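Reading is simple: the token line describes the chain's fold. The lines below illustrate.

. . .
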Amino acid sequence: MVQLKKLLILTLLGGLFLSVSSHYFGAALDGDMGCFDAIVHQMKLGQRLYTDVYDNKAPGIFYLTYFTPPI
């Protein structure tokens, strides 16, 4: 009985999460995220950060985006 309650709660929480965040799936990237992705795309093509492509943000966000797989 306890396992069934846990499963029901997890299912409801998962459904709530998906319903709240579903508008983000497949959404076009705008603002900073679009810029980060464009710069990271150039980095993956061999361009060097701050030499060939530039933004005024710290390098950490670009490397985090570089190594994060797309959704």
Observations:
- The chain has one domain: 2-67.
- The chain has a mean pLDDT of 84.
- The helical segments are 2-21, 31-44, 59-67.
- Residues 2-21 form the longest helix (20 residues).
